Amino acid sequence: MSFDASDKDVLKRLIHSAPRRQLDVALLILASFGSPAAIKDVNARAIEVGVRKAKKWNLSDMFRRAAHLVIKLPSGWELTEAGRAQVRELGYEAAHADIAETQTPTVDRTRKAVILTALPVEHAAVMPYIARASRQRDRGTIYDVGEFVANDVTWTVAIAEIGAGNVRAASETERAINVFKPDVVLFVGVAGGIKDLSIGDVVVAEKIYNYESAKLDPEVKTRPHVFRSSYALVQSARAVIRDAKWQTRSPRGSSRHAVVGAVAAGEKLLASSYSSVAELIRNSYNDAVAVEMEGGGVLEAAHANEGTRAVVIRGISDLLDGKSASDKSGSQTLASENAAAFAFELLAQTA
Question: Which of 4, 12, 234, 277 is least surrounded by CB atoms within 10 angstroms?
């Protein structure tokens, strides 16, 4: 058995913390070997832990007179069962258990997340989830920084409202990553539903198409550029959907459902399913279920920062046609609240 610095400290404390008989000290030292030991080695270790009188000990005679506690083997002296019971009474095993407990590595139960939003209604939806919020600025960008605690993990969460557009989203994501060094980056906001979704539903973007990437010759020839969310976060999102606990976090106790799917992103605000852009998305990116304006930039910036996981979470606030009427009805608030509820349930289930 190895004899390191912590073992040495335990042995010294046991020997010198109280008056000990010579035999008890010798038994404690023999126990520290964990295997048969020669007399000269026992004597050397005694001196090593500060037992100066050990130089004058006749250990062979001492051990022979304590035959019920120690036994001589071909490879050296070893404690008997009675000897081991004696050192237990002297506190040897308890002292080692204490030092082992103090040396057990602590598990880091803290994480950092950045949550970006584009609109005031989106920012307002995520803020209630953090506690002890304080304001922080970096080169003009304002972050609300607070804590979110779930499943014994404390998340430090930095929230920012950055405005619309993929270019701006990429820039702000890069800045936030440099400032906070987060474990995860979430973009939480609203989107327009293209197919298979209703107002208030949540879509987690497994991939995002940049529908602006194309060649005009003279007709539009798409050049698909795809951004992907973190595989681990998408898998966690699927688990959140299966568990269906996220709905209980929503202020309204949402009955809407959530999906993982493809999303299209560009620089245009779509308000009609008959527009040329909507037609382009249906023809060239026909698995996209929603359209938005920031997710591609967020994922591109996260991709450039190795080790930073990112995902885009959107609540459906309109179905393109009748967008203005939907917005006036409060659909953006509903969609933002549901997206925020899903986002924080995702954090709760993410290690």
Answer: 4
